């Protein structure tokens, strides 16, 4: 008997966007398996369970009983993280969203930023630290996004790590995924000369965007182009599993960012743009 749907469930047209890659990954694993066992788990329901957990923030063992067994979801989540399937799906959908917005697949400009997130009890101390500037004990999440707010790269480090460490890693990811088309990166004042030098080695012009002195004391003031990465950080907080660091492994936390991005892009690809956005040429 079919279950009642959850708000985070994939619609048929949304599942069609990612099903070929998930099926191909499964067939590849079966081909390399000694037994050739295809398994009996519904992979669409596994993805639904990952989306459900990301949105609600529940623990593995608290997944609803009408979704696949938590152990099966945990297995596939780890398997797809290890195989890099989450990143491949993210890249495919990113190109499709940019194409829908009448842009080239790869951007010429990216925006880098970091966000310190508190860690929950039980997260290993070896993977966390204290961000002395923001007074946050946990991990530092670094993002590279384009002007449409699409994620290009993700890095998760201890909060005590300097922004330069995140910045150089993000530049490497952006250069690998965007190729020769990438020309410029915008960063805030937390990134120092090391990032600018590393960008020069990659033939990327890194520009530090400084706050307007006239905005001093006004709190958060959106800056042109850089505001998109702030918007992405805010959107990720809607996925409660990302509002705090619960995962023991930093690469698991990064994988959750990719799945949150996948959920957002699937919605953008299957939901018609408002008429006013089409009129202004701002279709998502």
Offer a quick outline of the entry:
This protein is an alpha/beta fold and 284 residues long. It has nine helices and six strands, in the order ααααββββαβαβααα.
What's the Cα radius of gyration? Answer: 20 Å
Sheet-strand content, in percent, reads 5-15%
User: Would you identify the regions where 5 or more consecutive residues have pLDDT less than 50?
Assistant: 280-284
> What overall form do the CA principal axes indicate?
globular
Number of helices: 9
- Give the rounded overall mean pLDDT: 89
Bin the helical content. 40-55%
What string, H for helix and E for strand, traces the elements in order? HHHHEEEEHEHEHHH
Report on the biggest sheet: 6 strands, mixed
Structural class: alpha/beta
Give the quaternary arrangement of the chains.
single chain
How many DSSP-defined strands? 6
Termini gap: 37 Å
Characterise the protein shown here:
This protein has 284 residues and is an alpha/beta fold. The chain has helices spanning 12-32, 43-56, 70-83, 85-100, 163-178, 193-201, 227-236, 250-270, 275-279, and strands at residues 109-118, 129-131, 136-145, 151-158, 184-187, 205-208. Strands 1, 2, 3, 4, 5 and 6 form a 6-stranded mixed β-sheet that branches. β2 (129-131) and β3 (136-145) form a beta hairpin. α1 (12-32) packs antiparallel against α4 (85-100), α2 crosses α8 and α4 (85-100) packs parallel to α8. Mean pLDDT is 89; it is low at 280-284.
């Amino acid at each position: 008997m079919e279950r009642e749907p959850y708000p985070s469930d994939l619609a048929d047209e949304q599942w069609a966007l990612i099903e070929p890659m998930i099926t191909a990954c499964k067939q590849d694993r079966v081909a390399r398996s000694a037994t050739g066992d295809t398994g009996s788990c519904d992979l669409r329901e596994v993805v639904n369970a990952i989306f459900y957990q990301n949105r609600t923030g529940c623990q593995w063992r608290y997944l609803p009983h009408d979704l696949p067994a938590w152990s099966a979801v945990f297995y596939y989540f780890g398997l797809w993280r290890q195989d890099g399937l989450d990143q491949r799906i993210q890249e495919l959908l990113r190109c499709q969203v940019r194409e829908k917005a009448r842009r080239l697949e790869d951007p010429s400009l990216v925006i880098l930023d970091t966000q310190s997130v508190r860690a929950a009890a039980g997260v290993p101390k070896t993977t966390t630290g204290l961000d002395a500037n923001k007074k946050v004990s946990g991990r530092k999440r670094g993002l590279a996004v384009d002007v449409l707010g699409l994620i290009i790269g993700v890095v998760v480090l201890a909060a005590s790590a300097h922004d330069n460490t995140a910045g150089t890693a993000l530049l490497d990811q952006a250069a690998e995924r965007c190729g020769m088309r990438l020309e410029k990166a915008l960063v805030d004042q937390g990134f120092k000369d090391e990032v600018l030098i590393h960008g020069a080695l990659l033939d990327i012009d890194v520009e530090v965007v400084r706050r307007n002195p006239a905005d001093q004391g006004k709190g958060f003031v959106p800056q042109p182009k850089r505001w998109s990465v702030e918007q992405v950080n805010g959107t990720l907080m809607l996925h409660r599993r990302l509002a705090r660091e619960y995962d023991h492994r930093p690469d698991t936390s990064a994988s959750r960012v990719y799945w949150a991005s996948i959920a957002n892009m699937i919605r953008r690809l299957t939901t018609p743009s408002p008429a006013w956005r089409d009129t202004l040429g701002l279709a998502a």
